[in-house]
Amino acid sequence: MTYRSIDYEAVGRIARITLNRPDRLNAIDGALPGELRQAVDEANADDHVHVIVVAGAGRAFCAGYDLKRFAERHTRGIQEEMPWDQMADYRVMKRNTDDFMSLWRSYKPTIAKVHGYAVAGGSDIALCADLVIMADDARIGYPPARVWGCPTTAMWVYRVGVERAKRLLFTGDLIDGRTAAEWGLVHRSVPAHLLDTAVQELAERIATVPRNQLMMQKLMINQAFDNMGMAGTQMVATLFDGITRHTPEGMWFKREAERHGFQQAVAWRDSGQPLPDGVEAKALLQEDG
């Protein structure tokens, strides 16, 4: 198959999917989610492949959605026209969520190799893998939890439990690889220069196991998460993600991006300064007309 935003190769029993937009820190464009799913399907259809590794080219795993152009242009949501249709928004974002979850649903084990940053939508992709290995100095988190986002895959609570999921999503803070491993968010953290080796060793170890054995173990473990209501949680999370972009606070944030640029709006969002809330956000929007 021909891919635009990823690279795919299979050598021996290991398939490798590389997010390949390094000039944008592998930010998610319109093609990447669907291509990720297609590559996972390709690996699952290859009887030589036993395990899949997903990584990012260049300086980061994935910096989230490529929102600069969208945030800075004068529209009010994913759609060009208002009033906003929440179900149309949901349809778009649910498709992306399902594409990311192809790593989770894959019949063959998946490993995410995280260096640099895995933030916002990038963290969604990484946490959909069965196993995540991070560089010690890599950073992971969901800053849009502060305003203008909700993690649609909802994997945080399933990986770290209630309190730590709340700690991360109430603040939008990033944590490094060491902390992520200590909290159980990821399988392991290693010095950056050992990341390739650690991932290769794990992939090679898994690849020695028959495909049917790997498939049965994975289906059994994933079923436990299905029994805990993962699909329902993701539906709510994906609906909430659309709502966050259309609250008074979300509309204010987009207005800031239109006026001052997306990077400056993000810098304010993540600075720890109080963000406009409720009546204050509405008043600011009214002042802007």
Report on this model:
- With 289 residues, the protein is an alpha/beta fold.
- Helix content is 50%, strand content 14%.
- The protein has 14 helices and nine strands.
- The chain has helices at 32-45, 68-72, 86-100, 102-105, 121-128, 155-160, 162-171, 177-183, 195-207, 211-227, 230-244, 248-260, 262-270, 279-287; strands spanning 6-11, 14-19, 51-56, 110-114, 117-119, 131-135, 139-141, 174-176, 188-190.
- The strands form two sheets. Strands 1-2-3-4-6-9 form a six-stranded mixed sheet, sandwiched between helices. It has a three-stranded mixed sheet with strand order 5-7-8.
- Strand 1 and strand 2 (14-19) form a beta hairpin.
- The longest helix has 17 residues, at 211-227.
- It is globular and about 65 Å long.
Beta content comes to 5-15%
Largest sheet: 6 strands, mixed
Helix content: 40-55%
Mean pLDDT equals: 94
Note the overall shape. globular
